[in-house]
Write a structure and sequence with these properties.
Number of strands: 32
Radius of gyration: 27 Å
Largest sheet: 9 strands, mixed
Structural class: alpha/beta
Distance between the termini: 59 Å
Strand content: 15-25%
Amino acid sequence: CVSRPLAGSKVIILYNRKQLLPNDNSSLEEVKSMFAMIGYNGWSLQHAIKVDLQPMKNDHSPLANHDQEKCDWWKFELDVPSEALVIDFVVGDSKGNFDNNNGKDYHIETAAETDGIVEDNSREAQIDREYKLLAEKRREKNEEDLTFVRKCAENAVRAKAALLAKKAISSIRGEFRVHTDPLRPKAGEKVTIRYRPDGGPLTFARAIYVDINFNRVKNHPCKMEKVDMRAGINGGVLETTIDVPLDAHVVDFLFKDNGIFVDDNEGVEYHCDVIGASGVAPTLHIAHLAVEMAPIAKVGGLGDVVTALSRAVQEQGHHVDVYVPKYDCMNYKEIEGLRKVDQFHYGNDVVNIYQGFVEGVQVTFIDPECGHFRVGCIYGRGDDHIRFGYFSDACVAYMKHANCFPDVIHVHDWQTAPAIWSPDRPETTATALTIHNLQFGQDLIRRAMIECTFATTVSPTYAEEIKHHPSINVIQEREPGKFKGIRNGIDNDIWDPYNDEFLPLRYDWQTCKEGKREAKLELLKRMRMDATDFESKPIVACVTRLTEQKGVHLIKRACRYALEKGAYFILLGSAPDDRIAHDFANLANEMKSQHPGHGGFFFSYDEPLSHLIYAGADIFCVPSMFEPCGLTQMIAMRYGAVPLVRRTGGLRDTVFDVQLDPARAASHGKSCNGYNFDGEHEQDIEYALNRALGDYFDRDKWNQMDLPSAGMRQDWSWTSPSERYVDLYWNARSRVNRQ
């Protein structure tokens, strides 16, 4: 189309179908139809619509200077609304392939024919409004702080737009049991609620009704109860249409029959965001209490989760604080605007309070004069339970001192669990517990499970694996819905091969072959390995802590087996256990002697090197004995490395075997993306690695499978998990306010 089509007129948009499957002409020939999902102004104007694309004849090529071998042009025509400032779209075909511009969607700015005043709902305008709102709250901060506020606003709009586009596509596919039309209705207008009962709690209900409320409150003046759901135009789908009140920022609803069965989305109800409402939108105040936070005080995955979840919830418009100890060993360079803001007496001690920003999130640092956190380390002194118990109580005591209690205090693992039963916490503040690893602090976790408002762990499968543990099953009979498994996500801003400063060539899913080739060559040079004929030999890689939990005996076998089969093997990791460290040092020397130039070992964590390994690896091993969630397999897929994992915890929830899991992948709305195995013996990982290497060495098969590109196109970010957490936060606040 022209660079800026005119709002209020027709526009023709051209699309090169080979963007969708650039290296697979056979699949292109099988495609019979294509369509686009269209929205406007950051998906905020009207609801997403589906438009069919039409093929263009070869003799009507729109751009004569384009290589016709790389082009297959299709077109679609739109009537652009007069108030549209930006056209948003994604493209799909009849084979189930989608092109969303590497998660960014496509956007075309429009031109205005007149200077008529309309509400500006462009992405930039939404960012500006979000920026001004957050800036007002932090007006006393300096300009450096406001830079982070601006970034948060941009991420908020981008996350909302991406999620809305995903929901629009899924509603067309019929994947969602519940959806609305439009997806984001306008206040004062109508919205149709659609419900597919098959497969849910109301599958066999003879009559189904919907209870409707607004703004996440108990009794909105326009609340409606037992509204009849009637058959819609699509078979098996029920629907009803209502008027959205002018002050409604969100529509809340649940479904029920005439008896005792209810579909309330596992206790958190269903929700639909509304645009253009009057008044102030309802928001939450969440406070995370944690002893780790990336990148300032990170030992394991807990620190990554605290930072990423906080950012994701904040980007949805909520107020998020994080409380961490002020360690003397923190990475202070990553804290912006650190300053002392308060001091108070706690018991016989004086506690200093500092605040600053980490990754755009406000952080409160607890610094007691007794010196608990001036000991040069985070863990390992033998008095961790005393130090962290003190920290938990001091956090709640400070909230009382400063009168800044949040709606929800969210604690992480046993270290901050004591905050749940602090006598200073008011009953109107809900509590959430997330179990990252049940291996430690089980007595504290047991008490926290009993007393918290709700609890989560970091993946659905891990929740199933530990639900009968004595620390967990204490709540099963009395409160069966209290414990949830929610998959962790990765931070797509930090782990982004398209904007990664550590890579020789930045790339996305469309250019991953070129980008990964350059990364692979650079990685081999960095590790001083033999790069002769390197494209014909896969790199099998592993980035991990070398502990028994991570399956060290399987890592050793993977190393030997890969090298025996003619592949490269690269390991980045450190071992806190001297015995394990000694074993791997011997392994490295042995493999370098037996397979010179093909083994690379680095026994210390190196952040830039880890990025290069993710990008340069062809196959990425995660053979953990147990893994509550795991992040490395998702990061690997983000960079186009094919994961090979043991089927446990979050590894099972994210990696779908190319031979064993097509049906399971489809049930999760995913495509197969890697290899997995069940056992814990050497022959088990050999079996999986043999299949993966066999597929790689069969170059035609590997290219046809296109697993690197498929993995890169899947969304393992925090967008969907954080929405689930927000629903649980609202539900928790409602529950404590009813008590």
